[in-house]
Target: Laccase
Amino acid sequence: MKMSFGKKLFLQVLWCFSFIDLSSQTRSPYSFVVREAQYTRLCSTKSVLTVNGNFPGPTIRVHRGETIFVNVYNKGNYNITLHWHGVKQPRNPWTDGPAYITQCPIQPGRKFRQKLVFSSEEGTIWWHAHSDWARATVHGAIFVYPTKNTPYPFPQPHAEIPIIFGEWWNTDVNEVFTQSIETGGAPNISDALTINGQPGDLFPCSMTETFKLKVEQGMTYHLRVVNAAMNLILFFSVSQHNLTVVGADGLFTKPLTRDYICISPGQTMDVLLQANEEPNHYYLAARAYSSGVGVAFDNTTTTARVEYSGNYTPPSSLSLPYLPNFNDTGAAFDFITRLRGLPERYPRQVPTNTTTQIVTTISVNTLPCPDDRTCQGPNGTIFAASMNNISFDTPNINILEAYYYHINGVYQTGFPRFPPFMFNFTADFLPLTLNIPKQGTRVNVLNYGATVEIVFQGTNVVAGIDHPMHLHGFSFHVVGYGLGNFNQSKDPMNFNLIDPPYLNTVIVPVNGWAAVRFVASNPGVWFMHCHLERHQAWGMETVFIVKNGKASNETLPAPPPDMPPC
Model:
């Protein structure tokens, strides 16, 4: 798609003018150089993709409502995109980041200046690669502070500490991804979980590098928690200490004090740790919550050390904290359903009169194996995944540019608003005919200002499991959860329309449902997908196109002049 010099100059002028109202809030840009670096874990060294040589990558620090720029230089060997997860990017989908959805990848040797428009976000969010499996090592935290002279809705902590959970493979993650696509089977599980890039004391060649939280008795610490794991929902806790959640997905919440926390890939939390125990060493530990029967997962435990200051003799070995069993759906469901929003700080009305209702199944599926291949999915098939029985085909031209420039043949409208087949979605045994989805690039088109309700209905097709569903460009009110099949006549009567959490990633419980609501007030193209990386690769995703409104501040501006070419 080549454009004339005159048209490109016109777009540059438009792009520059679109910054004028924000120029007083901008500052020096961040520089992100994507490049390979050598890292040693689990007694072996390999080359991994990083930003600025760091794993995890650099932390971005901003205040609420600021606009910043990140200059991304791809000096790696693969195409790359970066996504600013939880940044709603009002009227700015052009630099949101998902490959072939809002941009084509940044090719090796090229660069892209990405604009990050912060609006209502506060607390902790994050950034990560959004192409293939690069995000395994290309990710970092974003700390969003309240506007200057505005206090936290909780006592000022003594210090803030990032806690970034991840997964580590001894082999090249690109090979793990490529092998799973070529064979049609599930990707190999990781060799270790990590905290801030380190596996912890329980792994070989790891103890000296275990992450340590240095604390003083009587002080409170703000843990900025990110689950950057590729495929694992996690339980985590601290020995003999309670944890208080005060924020989730970039907005503060009502305090929730528990002895463990459940957090999915894509989710972030602001958590207060009170150092109120006897001076000693204590473990912070995390391990998987995996509800899929027969689904292989990394069942190791990663640890960090909470080390009190003072004169004492630490024990030669530490005991692990309480963590629910890996398949304890009740513990996970009990935690996620107790989060509450903070409407007194964010006085936005929960939509009550929805104009657009979508009920979508989210399923793991299989596709037949071609005659010329040997496939390693169930019974010799190829793993797939779907929403409303459509497994998403990612195009080779990005959807946002196809929409903006009216390029035909890249996507189709008409994503179904209701499941095409009605059956007992969560039954123990389902007909094999339900396993095979349709394939296509179907999108949802929404009018500007539409009030939208989405009910995500998990199914037991092939294998039921929890699904963390993430929506770009928006946060949504999570108004309800349930186990089993959603009942349209009964379940909405129990929706929380007073103080639901306002999230960008919702855990849909295994063989259950979750309901969310939002107002479609952000024009552009926005991705929605499962944040378990294997499910996204298999097609559990769709796209929302929000049409322009009538006012100039309700319309999609022109693209930046340096959009990466396809």
About this structure: The chain has three domains: 30-145, 159-339, 356-546.
